[in-house]
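Possible regression after last week's pipeline update?

I re-ran a chain I had predicted before the update to compare outputs. Posting the input and the new output here so someone can diff against the archived version. Not blocking, just want to make sure nothing changed silently.
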Amino acid sequence: MSVKVVRISKNPLDWAINKLGMTRADFQVEGGYSKPYLLRLSQGRHSHMGARVVNDLYSMARAKGIDLDSEIVGEYGSATSVPDAYDVWVAEHRKAQTMPAPVNDKTLNPFMRLVKAVGSVSRMSALLAAPDQLVERYAKGVSYEMPMPVMMALTDMGYAHIDELDAAMRDWGRRNA
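New output (post-update):
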């Protein structure tokens, strides 16, 4: 059984696109973005909003006479810009999530047991609001050192077993590498 990702407030990307009077599909076409990229960005699965996305949002807003920075004040805590709001939103998103108990399969590394309990690497990335590539490399045991975005996500979530998970992954790596 997979874990449901708890949705909180609208993410800042979709908030800004909505302020422009557009849909994500409209923004995708207008900016030449791929649908999967914007989906991952809207789920917090990138470490930050890319400069091109930010520049396009602000450029389109200026062309329509919209001041995104003044409109975002108060929407996402103390954030005063769309990129700041993204960072605030990611932290709040993580706090709303819970980590399931790992599956009981000793053939899998400790982090992959959590990934299996969540359902998939992409679902774990959405739950953690962490980049897919880092979650996947850690889950597959390509790296046995916990990536900083994963550690930050688990910390933001209040996950109580970070040190134990890190130590277990390092032990797994020594025994199975």
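Follow-up from reviewer: compared with the archived run. Residues 12-91 form one domain. Marking as no regression found.
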